Amino acid sequence: MQKTALLVITALLFNIVSSYAGGFIIVMPSKHSKPNSAVPGQPNPALFPLESRSTQVNTSINGLTATTNIKQVFFNPTNRQLEGYFLFPVPKDVVISKFTMDINGLKHEAELLDATKARKIYEEIVRRSKDPALLEYYGKGMFRVRIFPILAQTEQKIELTYTETLVQNNGTIAYSFPMNTEKYSAKPIKQVSFKISIDGKEKLKTVYCPTHKVEIIRKGEQKATVGFEASNVKSDRDFKLYFNLDNSKLGLSLLNYKRPKEDGYFFINLSPGFGNQEDVVAKDIVFVMDKSGSMAGDKLDQAKKALRFCVENLNKNDRFEIVPFSTEASSLFGKVENFNPANKQKAIDFIEDIRPIGGTNIEEALDLALSAQESGSKRPFFVIFMTDGKPTIGETEEDPLLKKVAAINKENVRIFTFGIGTNLNTHLLDKITESTNAYRTYVLPDEDIELKVSDFYSKASSPVLTDIKVEFDKNVRVSDVYDKKLPDLFKGGSISLMGRYKGSGKSTITVSGLINGVRKRFQYVVDLSNENTELDFIPNLWASRAVGYLLDQIRLHGENEELVTEVTRLAKKHGIITPYTSYLILEDEAISARDGRVRDADLILRPRALNAPQLSDDIDFEEEVETISGLNHGSSAKKKDGSNSIRTSKESQAMNQASNLADAQQGVERLSYKDNLGNNRNLSEGIVNIQGRAMYNNNNEWLDANISLNQDKNIKTNRVKFNSEAYYKLMENEEAIAFLALGKNVRFMMNNEVYEVHE
User: Which residue stretches does the UniProt record annotate as biased composition, category Polar residues (predicted)?
Assistant: First the structure.
């Protein structure tokens, strides 16, 4: 009995019980405790379920020097005093010059271990705990601090500060913070907040975060503040922020991901920075507002307030017009007029007099708005089009209306649509914005029209570069670029594009665009390495844009086999699981399983369906199909109005414009179901992206998407027993580490061979 207890204590020596953004805790049992385990000799994670209460991160970046302060609160809910180590992984290639740590107000010395020493500790933890999760940090250094005592039923407060020198590559400066803690957290972190203050010391251009949805506030030409807040967080990825310093008019930041012998992925972000008012291009803008009877009440009141906000925030050299419409359309001036105090007051009085009455004559409203453009003008011409209904007067059919827009429209015209409510033809509004390279916005009944319109206008009121084109020189060949057409660039804003590329080495990127009707060119020399596998979020973001674009093509222009096949392939490979893509995958896998083209063990979503007999009742796949491709796979059967159509439009646009991983996850809340044991599950769970593709967890076994997509039935398979000497030999291959960290049962492809790790 004593020997068994000793074995249990040894196994529990490095039991991972909880973790926090930035670091995690290895807890050891009390010397006087009598640990027990459901399985003799195996650690029981429920013994020490530490809870994370909050994580607060404040970072100050001055030039290339970043000082990060972290405050964490965690709680020991057990009735025992515990002992452990706090480990803080040091990001690869990061040089930390200072590291201080307080535990409950008392300073503690932290031991810095280089990557070699840290690797030995990580490996020892894996051997003793028989848990491979910490391999995530294999090859990285760490700071280690002993924590004792961890008092029972008590909060513990940890504060640490460190300074690092940031790395600059291709003109882009990167800041990274370790937040990939999902494997260790007993519960989601209740509250997480980030505040990052940047003082570039030079003109700050691009600032963006591709991993999390953040708020960016510009404070002059050199400074910005980045904020992020969330509750009940179970983060599965590190926080990454990128920015560049450039005294030229336009800043360009380039990131890339490339595996050997494969086409690469690139991510470009363009921004003029905060800019000066003299950089703003004078524009012509027409505000078109539906005043039909259905707009009566709060809708019209909010729309009028929004319109007044827009008028009051016009730039001094702008020209404008207002076109209200119902049964007929009318206008304030008859053409665009200069923005000045007298015309501003006329507009405010005109807006105040608008009353709701009549039907919805979209045809006449568009005719009047587009005819307000001055002949031969080279100014950007924007139309803000607000409506709450389908056309009921004049031309009411979708295709003839679109042909009219195409006939009148010119290259410098952008029609931004605002659909109010749910009684709308989303296909009409979406095709108008698509054909004019603009954006669509929908305002649901419980949302504020004034807030939506004013928020949009605040970002889009000051164009600095329009009709933008990006070209690479002959050293690099690019393909599959999204957006297909780049939107205009506004003061204080940014745009991004992603694509695939062949080639490597130095390349010149030329960005051109119109400034006051004259095409200007900006050139940037970048270096695309032949191998760069650090930024493996880029393929996932690119795939999200590709799938979003293809779904819009299916929804707006009709389904065909080629589009469906490509959406299914991309969704499988990159884990883009939406209600519609999951339907396509399940349908494809059912056929593949029936025909014997794919082994049951190589299916990614079908095992979940087989374990959920009520899946089709829990998830309304029919509704998703009806909205995107039509129940009979025909455009005439598609649902073009109602809340479902609006939701689908918003989700596909969000994916098509995704600049962070949060935007790539659309419709997840509609993928919930119960398995055959009655447990609440979600089709999107158990999916992580590693080295540019998805890994799927089914029945506690991880499967590489590349295995599912591979058609070679004779591919070599290497079986490796977990925790064996062959397993630790495999750990010497750096490419295998990320896969091994997933668990004890993992099947993945490497060097055109399958590796099957098993217990």
Answer: 643-661
Provide the domain count of the chain: 4
Q: At a CB cut-off of 8 Å and minimum separation 6, what does 707 contact?
A: 602, 747, 748, 749, 754
CATH number of the structural domain spanning residue 114: 2.60.40.3680
pLDDT interval class at 207 (50, 70, 90): very high
Residues with Cβ within 8 Å of 218's Cβ and at least 6 positions away in sequence, in order, are 204, 207, 224, 273, 274, 492
Question: pTM higher than 0.85 for the full model?
Answer: yes
Q: Which residue has the higher pLDDT, 473 or 21?
A: 473
421 near 646, Cβ under 8 Å?
Answer: no
| Helices 298-312 & 341-352 angle (0-180, nearest 10) | 180
Q: Report the distance separating Cα 501 and Cα 264, nearest Å.
A: 5
Q: How far does Cα 224 stand from its chain's mean position?
A: 21
Cα–Cα distance for residue pair 649/657, rounded to 1 Å = 12
Residue 471 tokens, joined: 């070209």
* DSSP-derived 3-state class of residue 299: helix
Say if residue 517 is in the same domain as residue 611. Answer: no
Instruction: Please report which confidence band the pLDDT of residue 181 belongs to, taking 50, 70 and 90 as the band edges.
Output: low
Q: Which residues contact 362 (CB under 8 A, 6 or more apart)?
A: 325, 387, 391, 394, 395, 401, 428
Where do we find the tokens 């990614």? 604
- CA 159 to CA 156: how far, in whole Å? 10
In degrees and rounded to multiples of 5, residue 263 shows phi and psi of -65, 145
Same domain, 100 and 235: yes
Quick check: helix, strand or coil at residue 461?
A: coil
What are the distances in angstroms from CA 42 to CA 29, 39, 76, 84, 108?
14, 5, 22, 19, 32
Other C-beta atoms lying within 10 Å of the C-beta of residue 498: 25
Residues 452 and 337 in one domain: yes
Give the whole-angstrom CA distance, residue 86 versus residue 212.
25
DSSP 318: -
Residue 485 lies in a domain: yes
Backbone angles phi, psi at 57, to 5 degrees: -120, 125
| Nearest CA among 110, 55, 114, 126 for reference residue 90 | 114
State the pairing for strand pair 284-290/319-325.
Answer: parallel
Q: Per residue in 676-718, pLDDT tens?
A: 999 999 999 999 999 999 999 999 999 999 999 997 878 999 9
Same domain, 96 and 210: yes
With b for 16 or more beta-carbon neighbours within 10 A and e for fewer, the 636-650 pattern comes to eebbbbeebbbbbbb
Whether residue 478 sits in one domain with residue 584 = no
Q: Which residues contact 629 (CB under 8 A, 6 or more apart)?
A: 554, 555, 559, 564, 580, 638
Residue 313 pLDDT more than 60?
yes
Alpha carbon distance 237, 131 (integer Å) = 20
Average pLDDT over residues 194-223: 92
Return the pLDDT at 145. 83
Amino acid letter, 690: I
Cα angle 175, 181, 187 (rounded to 5 degrees) comes to 135
Residues of the domain holding 491: 251-277+465-528
Q: Which residues contact 447 (CB under 8 A, 6 or more apart)?
A: none
Question: Which token pair is 718?
Answer: 């290497």
Q: Answer whether the bond into residue 620 is a cis peptide, omega within 30°.
A: no
Neighbouring CB atoms inside 10 A of 463's CB total 25
Candidates 361, 373, 368; CA nearest to 331 is 368
